[in-house]
Amino acid sequence: MRLVKIRGFRDREIRFDFPVTALVGPNGAGKTTILGAAGLIYEKVRPRQFFVKSGAYDNSMKGWRVEYNLIDTSQKTGSTRTRTASYLRAKWNRDAVKRDVAIIGIARTLPASERNDMYRFARNDFTAAGEISFDPPVLEAVRRILGKDAENYLKVAADKAGKAQIFALRDEDRPDENYSEFHFGAGEASIIRIVSKIEETANDSLILIEEIENGLHPVATRRLVEYLIDVARRKSCQIIFTTHSNDALAPLPTDAVWSSYKGRLTQGKLDVSALRTLTGQIDAQLAIFTEDRFDEMFADVTLRAYAQRKSLDRSSIRIHALGGSAPARDHTRFHNGNPTRTFPAVCLLDGDMRHEGGYVPLPLTHRRDGVERTGVDIVYAPGLSDPEEHVFSTIRSNMESGNLIGKLTLALQLDTPMQSRVRSSIIERGNTNRDRHLIYAQIGEDLDFLSETVVQRAFVTTWAYAFPDEVDAIWGPVQQLIPEAAGED
After folding, report:
1. CA nearest neighbour of 459 among 425, 417, 416
2. Has residue 489 got a pLDDT over 50?
3. Is the domain of 304 the same as that of 337?
4. Residue 401 in 3-state DSSP?
5. Does residue 27 fall inside a structural domain?
6. Is residue 256 situated within a structural domain?
7. 80, 70 Cβ separation under 8 angstroms
8. Which one, of 316, 320, 340, lies nearest residue 331 by Cα?
9. What is the extent of the structural domain holding 116?
C-alpha cells in the first residue's frame, strides 16, 4: 500500500509480508490512518468510518490518495491488481473491491454501564428474550487467552431479533455466583467480544483492531496475538492491529511489525521504550541502537567500562535492541536526519557487517553546550562474526593470563573453588558447541543451571575489563558524542 498523500504521510509505502501485522508508534503518529487506509479500498468499509470531513475545516483532505497492489486470490497464479482510493473534491473515489472486513474499535473496552445501548438491561425487572451459547472455537480461544474455563459464558438478548445483547456468566451449579457484563472486568469483556466477532467472520476476511492491548493484562495481550496468528492460519484471514505494547509484538516475526513516526514508516520490531526515546519522551543525550538483546547488553557493559576510564556519563545514554542490522541502521539515520532532534544516535552492529554494502559509517555531528561534537553513525563490535563468538573465543584463548578464570568465576557469582569447573566447561563447550548463540546457556547448565543472562553478562564484563584496547576500538570513534561526567564541586 502506498500512501501518496493522506494526513501526515507523503509517498510512503508499507508491505504486509506476514498475515498478522502490528502498527506501533506514539499517539498522533498515524497508526489509525494506516489501519483505515488498509480497509478503505474494500466496499464494506465506509470511508467516513476512518476519514470524516467536517466542512471547510477539513479542506486539507483535497488531493488525498492511496494506491494499492492487491493479490487476487481467485487466481491460482496469484496475480495482482492495482487499485486507487482518492479524495478529489467532496467525496471519496474508489475502485472498491469486495471482501469481508471486520473492524474492532476502542468502543469494545467501554464498561457496559457507560454504553448507551445497554439501557434495556439495566433494570431490576429485566427478562431475557433469549440466550445464545458461544460456539466451541470461541470458548476454546477465550479459555486459552483468559486462562480459565469459558463454558458458562453466554450472550443474552433483549429482543427476539437479537439486536441488543449483553454478555453474562451463568453457572447452574452455583447460581449465587452468576453475573452479567455489568460486572465483567474490562479485559474479560474485550476478549470475548474480539474472539466472538473474529470467529463469526468469513474465511479470507480482513480484520482491523485498534489498540489491541487496551484493558488487557500483558499475558492476555500476548496470548491474544498468538490467537490471531492461529486465526490467520486456520481461516486465511489477514489481521492488522495498532498497539503501544511490547507484549503484543513478542509473538510476531520482525517483518510483521511497522513503526510510524513523523510521517515515516519503518519495518522491523521496535521496542516501545526505544520509540519513546526516538520521540523525545525519554530524556537522553545519546541513543545507541543495536541488532539484538545480546548486543544491547554488550553495549551497556562495554560503555560502562569505557565511561569509567574516560570520565564519561553512561547514565544519560539510552540503549535499545531493534531486531536486526537494517532496522538499527535505518532508525539511527532517520533519527539523525531529523533537524529537530535534541541528541544524536549511534548504531552498534556485529563485526560481520563491517564489510557489507550499505553499512559504511557516515560522519555525524552534534552541537552540545555550544560545542560542535563529531563522530560516526555506525560502530562495530570486534571480530569478524558476532560478539558472542568473539568474547567467548578471546576468553578461551587467554584463560591462563592475568587470573582471567578467577575474575570470570567471581563475575559468575561463584565461589573461588569453582574455578576448575568453569575452566572445564569452557574447554568442553568450546569443543562441542555448534552455535555460539547457545554456548552461554550450555555453560550455565554445566554450572548448576546458572541463568543464561548471568553467564552472558559475566563473560562480557570480564572481557571488557581485561581487554580495554578492544573496547576503545568500539567506542573511540564516537567518544566526542558521549556526554562527559559531571565534575565534583
Report:
1. 425
2. no
3. yes
4. coil
5. yes
6. yes
7. yes
8. 320
9. 111-197
Residues 240 and 278 in one domain: no
Q: What is the mean pLDDT of residues 341-345?
A: 90
The model's pLDDT over 74-124, given as tens digits with 9 standing for 90+, comes to 766 667 889 999 998 778 999 899 999 999 988 776 766 667 777 778 777
AA identity, residue 239: I
Grid coordinates given for 237: 484471514
CA angle 459, 463, 465 (to 5 degrees): 125
The total of structural domains in the chain comes to 4
Inter-residue contact 429 to 443 (CB < 8 Å): yes
Residues 366 and 397 in one domain: no
Which pLDDT value is given to residue 114?
66
Same domain, 88 and 232: yes
**Helices 387-397 & 452-466 angle (0-180, nearest 10):** 60
| DSSP 3-state of 270 | coil
C-alpha–C-alpha distance, residues 99 and 79, integer Å = 17
Answer whether residue 476 is part of any domain.
no
Grid cell locating 406:
578467577
Q: What are phi and psi of 20, to 5 degrees?
A: -120, 125
Angle CA 107–108–112, to nearest 5: 90
Q: In b/e form, how buried is each residue of 298-312, taking b as 16+ CB within 10 angstroms?
A: bbbbbbbbbbeeeeb
Q: Among 383, 406, 433, identify where a domain stops.
A: 383
Are residues 166 and 135 located together in one domain of the fold?
yes
The grid coordinates of residue 256 equal 510483521
CATH of the domain at 259: 3.40.50.300
Examine the fold and report which residue of 197, 232, 248 is the final residue of a domain before the chain moves on. Answer: 197
488: pLDDT strictly greater than 60? no
Tell me the C-alpha distance between 365 and 376, whole Å: 8
pLDDT digits (tens, 9 = 90+) for 236-274: 999 999 998 889 998 999 889 998 887 888 888 776 667
Same domain, 329 and 370: yes
> CA 333 to CA 338: how far, in whole Å?
9
> From CA 81, how far away is CA 99, in angstroms rounded?
14
- The number of residues in the chain equals 489
- Considering the domain architecture, whether residues 344 and 311 belong to the same structural domain is answered as yes
Is residue 486, in this structure, part of any structural domain at all? no
> Do 335 and 360 sit in the same domain of this protein?
yes
The CB density around residue 49, as the number of other CB atoms within 10 Å, is 14
In 74-200, where does DSSP find H-type helix? 136-146, 186-200
422-448: pLDDT as tens digits: 999 999 999 999 888 899 999 999 999
* Amino acid in position 380: Y
| Cross-strand bridge partners of residue 375 | 364
CA pair distance 27, 29, nearest whole angstrom = 6
C-alpha 62 chain-centroid distance = 33
CA distance 307 to 315: 10
